[in-house]
């Protein structure tokens, strides 16, 4: 979450790679972190992965 909250430019690409993690808790945490990113970009990623 800190990565996304810090407005790191590459936060969203870094986080999306973690959506393929086999652990459900990791994926859930990544989705929460992505939701903290730029709203329009986060919505696009989350809708695509849903």
Can you give a write-up of this model?
By secondary structure, the protein is an all-alpha fold. It has one domain (2-49). It contains four helices and no strands. It has helices spanning 2-5, 11-17, 24-35, 39-49. The protein is globular and about 25 Å long.
Could you give the topology of this structure?
Blueprint: H1 2-5, H2 11-17, H3 24-35, H4 39-49
Helix pairs in contact: 2-3
Structural class label: mainly alpha
Strand fraction: under 5%
The Rg value, from CA coordinates, equals: 10 Å
- Shape descriptor: globular
Instruction: Count up the helices.
Output: 4
Overall tally of domains: 1
Low-confidence stretches: none
Instruction: Give a short account of the largest sheet.
Output: none
Average pLDDT rating = 79
What are the secondary-structure elements, in order, as H or E? HHHH
Q: How much helicity do the residues have?
A: 55-70%
Tell how many strands the DSSP assignment holds.
0
Taking the alpha carbons of the first and last residues, their distance comes to 20 Å
Q: What key phrases describe this protein's structure?
A:
mainly alpha; 68% helix; globular
Summary, kept brief:
The chain has helices at 2-5, 11-17, 24-35, 39-49.
């Amino acid at each position: 979450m800190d990565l996304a909250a810090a407005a790191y430019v590459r936060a969203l690409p870094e986080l999306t790679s973690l959506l393929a993690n086999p652990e459900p808790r990791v994926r859930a945490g990544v989705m929460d972190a992505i939701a903290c990113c730029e709203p329009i970009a986060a919505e696009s990623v989350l809708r695509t992965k849903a």
